[in-house]
Amino acid sequence: MVRILLIGCGSVGRGFLKVISRKMEWLRSAGIDPVIVGVTDSKGGLYDENGLDPEDVLRKKATGGFDNSISSLDLIEKVDFDVGIETTPTNAETGEPGLTHIKKMLERGANVITSNKGPLIVDFHGLCGFAKKRGLSLKYEATVGGAMPLISLIEKTLAGNEVYSIEGIFNGTCNYILSRMEKELFPFSHVLLEAQELGIAEKDPSYDIEGIDTAGKLVILANAIMDMKVGMKDVEIRGISEITPEAMELATRNGYTIRLIGEVRKNTGKLRVYPRLVSKSHPLAIYGTLNAALVKTDLAGEVFVSGRGAGSIETASAILNDLIGLYS
């Protein structure tokens, strides 16, 4: 039995509950018996050390049935669990509340899986060092690229390779906006509004369109894959709000498109997020809300990966992969 405490029951947390419910029999056949012993959000929670039914949790979440006397920190302290899953919203400046949640769960002797970029942006080496010292795992595939298996690809499939650089498209909102601008030659503001109406862009889209989300993912990749010691202050960032239909038309006429590219290069230590001309024959000339990355290595050469970078089920897929990885 694997006792799971889920901290955060927003879109990603609910997606994880749906995935666990859907894959329960498969997991048991693979020798993993997941039992949800507690779930919290910012307003309350539920717990039962004998196990909660994921579908029942989802119903109670939808109808306001969480107990508002239960807090995340209370459950971390009082419930016995083997794996803590942290899916609260990202705060790239302080890492909170996820940073405290992860530290407390590691202190309790539990492995931790997170989709929350904030704690890793703020204190990657501190958290990973603390987990290692206690003989625990901190896993974070879902923080960079959602269902796109970039971190596991590099750490497992490309094990033994030296990674020279990683460049890619790490924000589906920006890629959707630029794809639409290329196709229809609409102004940025028009396509942004469309993306908001479709639920692709947030009500406050600044985190995405100003390149902050992509920058945070680069920081995690640089620290995790290249063992750099970098933070947000080390990233040169420029967003996409100044891209015009005229610029996109000129690029298209010459066989290019414009994409928001994040890149980290080991030899220079340079991290950049910026709109760049990309040849339409280049692997990174992808469309819609997809993410993609091009990894340059010493042995395997160039390796390209693409996948859905957002979505509750897609992100939960990455969390599930990390969970399976802990027990296989």
Question: Would you give an account of this structure?
Answer:
The chain is of the alpha/beta class. It has 2 domains: 2-146 and 313-326, NAD(P)-binding Rossmann-like Domain (Rossmann fold, 3-Layer(aba) Sandwich), CATH 3.40.50.720; 155-308, Dihydrodipicolinate Reductase, domain 2, CATH 3.30.360. Helices cover 41% and strands 24% of the residues. The protein is built from 12 helices and 12 strands. It has helices at residues 11-29, 54-62, 72-78, 98-107, 117-133, 150-157, 172-184, 188-197, 206-209, 212-226, 245-253, 312-326, and strands at 2-7, 34-41, 44-52, 83-86, 111-114, 138-139, 163-169, 235-237, 256-265, 270-279, 290-297, 302-308. The strands form 2 sheets. A 6-stranded mixed beta sheet has the order 3-2-1-4-5-6, sandwiched between helices. The chain has a 6-stranded mixed beta sheet with strand order 8-10-9-7-11-12. A hairpin with a 4-residue loop joins strand 9 and strand 10. The longest helix is centred in the first third of the chain and has 19 residues, at 11-29. The two termini are 14 Å apart.
Secondary structure layout:
Elements: E1 2-7, H1 11-29, E2 34-41, E3 44-52, H2 54-62, H3 72-78, E4 83-86, H4 98-107, E5 111-114, H5 117-133, E6 138-139, H6 150-157, E7 163-169, H7 172-184, H8 188-197, H9 206-209, H10 212-226, E8 235-237, H11 245-253, E9 256-265, E10 270-279, E11 290-297, E12 302-308, H12 312-326
Helix pairs in contact: 1-2, 1-12, 4-5, 5-10, 7-8
